[in-house]
Amino acid sequence: MRNERKALPAAVPHEGWLLDQLKDAEFAAEYLNASLAEGDQAALMLALRDVARARGGMTAVARRTGMNRVALSRALSEQGNPELRSLSKILDASGVRLQFVALSRRRRATRAARSGAHKAA
Q1: Distance (Å, rounded) from C-alpha 89 to C-alpha 104?
Q2: Rounded to whole angstroms, how far apart are CA atoms 84 and 96?
Q3: What per-residue confidence (pLDDT) applies to 55?
Q4: In a domain, 51, yes or no
Q5: Confidence at residue 63, expressed as pLDDT on a 0 to 100 scale
Q6: DSSP element (H, E) containing 100
Q7: What is the pLDDT of residue 119?
Q8: Does residue 21 belong to any structural domain of this protein?
Q9: Which of 70, 66, 17, 22 is nearest to 46 (CA)?
Q10: What's the CA angle centered on 39, arms 64 and 111, to 5 degrees?
Q11: What is the C-alpha separation between 56 and 42, in angstroms, rounded?
């Protein structure tokens, strides 16, 4: 008998698993934090869309935010740039909130040293 291997798909579908995980607010918060850490607005908008889809879809999130579904879709598009008021409503409807955290002392010192070097130049 020859070694016959079953052909595997090029990629394993993960969307269903992800949407199921994003129903958990803590997982959704970590997912959004990770996308924010990328520093890419399009990635953050995609993550927000994923969370909205997991939380009942755009229509359900629009209903909970009081926003128009089309306006919500536009705000969360790849080129979206929602106002803080809209972003807060979307996050609240998704079970998460925006929060600021102080940088560690070491990181602040590094940034201060860099900005001092730029001023001296």
Answers
A1: 29
A2: 14
A3: 93
A4: yes
A5: 96
A6: none
A7: 58
A8: yes
A9: 22
A10: 125
A11: 22
Is residue 4 in some structural domain? no
d(CA 106, CA 30): 23
**Helix extents (H) in 1-121:** 15-21, 25-37, 41-54, 57-65, 69-75, 84-93, 105-120
Residue 28 contacts residue 94 (beta carbons within 8 Å) = yes
User: What pLDDT shows up at residue 5?
Assistant: 67
16 contacts 25 by C-beta, under 8 angstroms:
no
Q: What is the DSSP letter of 91?
A: H
- The one-letter code for the residue type at 9 is P
Place of tokens 């995609």: 46
| Structural domain span for residue 86 | 15-120
In a domain, 79, yes or no: yes
Residue 10 DSSP symbol: S
- The domain total for the chain is 1
Distance CA 76, CA 58 (A): 10
Whether 34 contacts 67, CB under 8 Å: no
How much is the average pLDDT of 64-75? Answer: 94
Say how far residue 35 (Cα) sits from the centre of its chain.
5
